[in-house]
Design a protein that fits this description.
Layout (H helix, E strand, L loop, with lengths): L1 H17 L6 E6 L7 E2 L6 E2 L1 H12 L3 E6 L2 H10 L4 E5 L3 H4 L2 E2 L6 E10 H6 L5 H7 L3 E4 L6 H6 L14 E4 L2 H9 L6 E4 H10 L5 E3 L5 E10 L12 H15 L3 H11 L5
Parallel strand pairs: 1-4, 1-5, 8-9
Antiparallel strand pairs: 2-3, 5-12, 6-12, 7-10, 7-11, 7-12
Length: about 270
């Protein structure tokens, strides 16, 4: 019940902000995930691999847009309500497909590994979820992130409606907070995209962060479109028409050197 009222309060404020933009301005949300999405919280400026790809395509489409970085739970709720039109860096799951349109083409593919700290890696040999349960190690997650079906099968919710996680799961708001907890051994494991985890740990100067070599799972990430979006412009009558044109442009863009160079630019960037 408390969670329900909390969502209502958040939705109230989101709906108020809805009217600050005209329907032909595309409202876009995403979460902090360096090097794919990096936000300067002082200036509100957002950049990164996903942002560069988004800008390259949507500028070509002649779309006016605003991009806001926010906690994932708020971004997801905003798209569900139609307050936000597009989400950047979103993986696919059945619950999200109820309120989101997924284009045919994904933006990039990733592998997830288990991040840990050097002390835990020396002490425990981990090759499966069963090993984690055997040693009773605490796993950090980002609240409302989907991971994959096998992960939640191994660590099922106690009560999802009440947001009660499995006893070994500890939720947090973003990548940085989980890696800091991991470095301080407040959690022992953290599943994350390999490049995001390595990049963020490096930029946070967390020298004791490492990872287990085996791949947990692979995922595809998309730019997604809200089914409740009211977006309309002179060039595109509605959000589904925009999505179809975007999908065609994405296919072309992924075949260019520009797409490849965006990854090189950010993945080869020096630590701050």
């Amino acid at each position: 019940m408390k969670l329900y009222f909390k969502k209502l309060i958040i939705l109230f404020f989101l709906l108020n902000s809805y009217y600050a933009y005209s329907s032909n301005t595309l409202r876009v949300c995403t979460e902090q995930s360096p090097p794919y999405v990096e936000s300067n919280r002082e200036t509100g400026e957002v950049n990164g691999i996903d942002i560069d790809i988004f800008i390259s395509i949507f500028n070509k489409l002649g779309i006016e847009y605003t991009i806001e970085e926010m906690p994932w739970a708020r971004c997801e709720l905003s798209m569900d309500a139609g307050v936000v039109d597009v989400g950047i860096k979103v993986s696919k799951n059945p619950d999200r497909e109820k309120f989101l349109y997924y284009p045919e083409n994904w933006v990039w593919e990733t592998v997830f590994v288990l991040f840990t700290n050097s002390e835990v890696k020396r002490k425990y040999k981990i090759n499966s979820y069963d090993d984690i349960k055997k040693y009773k190690l605490t796993i950090g997650v980002i609240h409302e992130n989907s991971y994959n079906a096998d992960f939640w099968k191994a660590f099922p919710w106690v009560d999802k409606a009440a947001q009660q996680y499995h006893p070994l799961i500890e939720p947090s708001v973003n990548v940085e907070s989980n890696l800091k907890k991991l470095s301080a051994n407040r959690i022992q494991l953290y599943p994350q995209d390999k490049s995001i985890g390595i990049y963020t740990a490096k930029n946070l100067y967390l020298s004791n962060i490492t990872y287990y070599d085996f791949v947990l799972f692979k995922k595809y990430y998309y730019n997604v479109f809200s089914k409740k979006s009211k977006f309309s412009s002179d060039k595109y009558q509605n959000i589904t028409e925009l999505m179809k044109i975007y999908d065609l442009e994405l296919i072309k863009f992924k075949k260019t050197k520009s797409y490849e160079n965006i990854f090189k630019k950010h993945l080869n960037a020096k630590s701050k």
